[in-house]
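Bug report (template v2)

What were you trying to do?
Predict the complex of my protein with flavin-adenine dinucleotide.

What happened?
Run completed; filing so the output is reviewed.

Input:
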Amino acid sequence: MTSWSESEVTVVGGGMAGSEAAWQLAERGLRVALIEQKPVEMSPAHQTPLCGELVCSNSLRSDDVATPAGLLKHELRAAGSMVIACADQHRVPAGAALAVDRFGFGRAITARLALHPNIRLERRRLDELPAGPTILATGPLTGGPLGEVIRRELGGDRMYFYDAIAPIVSADSIDMDHAFKSSRWGKESPALGDAAPASDGEAGEAGDGAALAAPEGDYINCTLSKDQYVAFVEAVNAGRTVMPHEFEEPRYFESCLPIEVMAERGRDVLRFGPMRPVGLTDPKTGRWPYAVVQLRPENRYLTAYNLVGFQTRLAYPEQQRIFAMIPALANAEWLRFGSIHRNTYVDAPRLLGPAFELKSRPALRFAGLLTGVEGYIESTAMGLLSAWMLAAELRGAPLPVPPPTTMFGGLYHHVTAPRGPKDRYAPTNVNFGLLPPVDMPPGQKKFDKAVKKQRLVERALADQRAWVDAVCPAA
Ligand SMILES: Cc1cc2nc3c(=O)[nH]c(=O)nc-3n(C[C@H](O)[C@H](O)[C@H](O)COP(=O)(O)OP(=O)(O)OC[C@H]3O[C@@H](n4cnc5c(N)ncnc54)[C@H](O)[C@@H]3O)c2cc1C
């Protein structure tokens, strides 16, 4: 790796990740060719020639450090993110959120890149992979000839075009009076990745390889009586869903249907699908419940669980309202809601090495949403990290990975942690479930939510500061 010439790095895509990556490489003294296809070629979602274009909302989400998105932004600032600096400069009033004037923001990013002495901004569509060190940051709508080339390079079926994300709930907010732990038929499984029968309809649900060590018996089964189930199905049927974008065809795999599509097909379809109770004996009654919602560990710390087979297009407030009808989740703290949308990403945990390099072609790096993160700021963070790692390697001193206690580290772990053989990789955005738990104050049985968050945040900021000081004292 260190034998590469340091002459020039190619960054493909001037979106959130590519803009940040190009800037970080250039600031480290590397010469960068940043290749952006706009305005020659526009994706169905991009509308301006600007780099750093926000394709939808103009909000980079909360700036409150006590929230996952706020914490990541603080970490990005501490690392000297150019994208976040431009966002701060073009902030518009939006309460606790960091929302921006999208044109001012995009213009500022474009100007910084275009004027940087180490960056050459080339406006053309790239159709082939360059031979030298390259960071690919072509985003969720990567397609055309380059998409084909990448697919081939990945070895066929390792690039995904839709994600189906199941909601995630904080473990300590599950009411175990209405739930019990058990595997179906009491069977133990060596790895969660092997535990998913196709008929569970959970292909594509969020699976974090970090949970591989948990036995299947660690599923939590939330029970519903007949009345509760019927009311739940009616609420799902009446719930408001998010409309697909024009360029998204709502085509679903039968094994991965959204719950609202199943509910629409008939009252009992969910009860014979992801909510089926067979083989799950409730120790309180000695019988199978009428219906269950199964929760599966989302991380190795067992602090977060995902709702098995609950991919959905229900709007977020609707998910909050309707899922509260599941008695064990009446007061659930949601770490992430479910979604299904067009999203091109690669099977990063299997194909990429520790510096986001394609194992079969290490000069090729990935960044941004392509790596399996969701969101503007997450993509930016992956652009920054990918660039820092590449720059460090080119200088002959690989970068220590970010601490797992930070949001940088949590995202890094999500992208790189090994998965079970049948565990389909699904993207994530930042949430507190990515971080290891903090110790409970001595003598307490239940953690106060606010105190828990405060401790997670303080630890993350301190650890990230120490890491940045160690790997990049100038930031
Ligand atoms: C329709 C839609 C709406 C979204 N809304 C939000 C939202 O509201 N909030 C949020 O946080 N996230 C949202 N996302 C998800 C995600 O955060 C953004 O897509 C984010 O911009 C991803 O960053 P990126 O750098 O990976 O890709 P992008 O920002 O999309 O950047 C990719 C760049 O690569 C260029 N490119 C592509 N192919 C080539 C090629 N062959 N040659 C040269 N250049 C090329 C593109 O023109 C583009 O500029 C949305 C995604 C989509 C698809």
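What did the reviewer find?
The chain is about 30% helix and 15% strand. The pocket of flavin-adenine dinucleotide is lined by residues 12-18, 35-38, 43, 45-46, 55-57, 125-126, 137-142, 146, 245, 342, 368-370, 375-376, 379 (CB under 6 Å).
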